[in-house]
Amino acid sequence: MTATRALRWLRRLEDALLSALVLILVGLAGAQILLRDLFATGLSFADPLMRSLVLWTGMLGALAAVRDERHIALDVLPRFLSPRVQRGVRIATFAFAAALCALMAWYSFALVRIDFAGGGATAASAAVPPWVAEAILPVAFALMALRFALRACAPPAHAPVLLHDPGAPRA
């Protein structure tokens, strides 16, 4: 299997998982609304599960944003820099983002480990133990760190528009 094919397969898997989680989240929320409004009841496990699904969906969405370079970024400065300096700034900012995500992965792993050692679910969230809901944090942050590190030296997916083009004719 080539690297391109493997990356394409991974992208489809990520997108399918993200889509499935969003559909489950919307379905559960809709069911809760209907059950509460029409039958004055609800699913006892739905609210804690939806909180967990929101966390998982958010982290998988952030991972997809980093994959496609659609994450939050300030791109004003690169518009004023030469392409050579832009590359250096890109490497520095992506390296910083990778380091920050790696730290978040480390500390969120410690959080999951503490919650796992602490036992099962609390009374408020009996459907989902806290460590299961939080398990996405170290995984997603570690993958984001890896993606930022790999993207640092890769060409940008979306090249910034230069406000000064040295090769353009002067008016």
Tally of DSSP helical segments: 5
Number of strands: 0
**Distance between the first and last residues' Cα:** 52 Å
Which blocks of ≥5 consecutive residues have pLDDT under 50?
none
Largest sheet: none
Task: Give the topology string: H per helix, E per strand.
Answer: HHHHH
Strand content: under 5%
Query: So what's the overall shape?
Result: elongated
* Helix content class: 55-70%
Structural class: mainly alpha
Mean pLDDT: 85
Radius of gyration: 21 Å
Q: In brief, what are we looking at here?
A:
With 171 residues, the protein is mainly alpha-helical. It has five helices and no strands.
Report on the architecture of this protein.
With 171 residues, the protein is an all-alpha fold. The protein has one domain. Helix content is 68%, strand content 0%. The protein contains five helices and no strands. The longest helix has 37 residues, at 3-39. The model has no long low-confidence stretch (mean pLDDT 85).
Short key terms for the protein model shown above:
171 residues, 0% strand
Blueprint of the fold:
Layout: H1 3-39, H2 46-67, H3 83-117, H4 130-134, H5 136-152
Helix pairs in contact: 1-2, 2-5, 3-5
